Amino acid sequence: MATHRAVHVNTVGGPLELVDAETIPPGRGEVRIAVSACGVCGTDRAFVNGGFPDMSWPLTPGHEIAGTISELGDGVVGFAVGDRVAVGWFGGNCNHCVPCRQGIFIHCENGKVPSWHYPGGYAETVTVPASALARIPAELSFAEAAPMGCAGVTTYNALRHTKALPGDRVAVLGVGGLGHLGVQFCRAMGFETIAVARGTDKAEDARKLGAHHYIDSTKNDVAEALRALGGVSVVLATAGNSQAMADTVGGLLPRGELITIGVTAEPLPISPAQLIMPALSVTGHPSGTARDVEETMAFAVLSGVRAWIEERPLAEAADAYAAMEQGRPRYRMVLTT
Fold first, then answer.
1. What is the pTM of this model?
2. Which end of the chain is more exposed for a tag (fewer CB within 10 A), N or C?
3. pLDDT level of residue 1 (50, 70, 90 thresholds)
């Protein structure tokens, strides 16, 4: 039996342990990837703590995967051994449910997510559906590509589907793993970019990332500060804090959009009265398909957008995960093999 090194979490909330795991050969429509890099995402915390239905244990986390195809299953077309590929939150679709037949693959009724529906990327190798594969441009390293499969595509894809036009003002709430990419993409898309975060410690970074303005939410009424700048067409809410999201609504221009991508179960404290007269919209945005990931990476190459990362070897996965949990890395940890 072939084995490889992988991280296992054996029980809900258990420690991350490096073990010898069975290597799964690809079935029909699948490929096996030699993992070169895997991002550590805040959502990994939910997986480790059993936050999704129908999970199985032991669990291998990781849904920001980049590597090289090492083995093809039957029926795979368009990809070859040696291809550089990424797999993100979108871990495959069925192609036969109603949403798939309508062409909205991100809402596949049988969609898969790495680490939830099959072992994830904190490992030397993963076996994935070919429908999950995004080609990595030659200009990106594996470590640069990995975060684009979740943090990158989520922010880029959300912004490009708003009604904002170049020159419009767009605010990014939160300057963290998602927000630091959101700020860069905003600037690259030609928006007047406003970063909103707690305190002053991220002000300098926000400006290095491309923000034209910085609002400290601990010292300012955020809506009032946004209005003082002329109001915004869009708020990209990357911080998982419902009250902080709601606090931006008063700064939206008529027909403005609050796009929520920061995950929290707390209800949004927003009233219909706040939305009706200015005709505001509040939208939830999922990440993006494999093709969206490819387009995110292509735009990153064109624009120079990159995640700010700290690389750690796979053997230090537990330390990297702990650093993410404690907020020690400011932006993105990436495991390398």
1. 0.96
2. N
3. confident
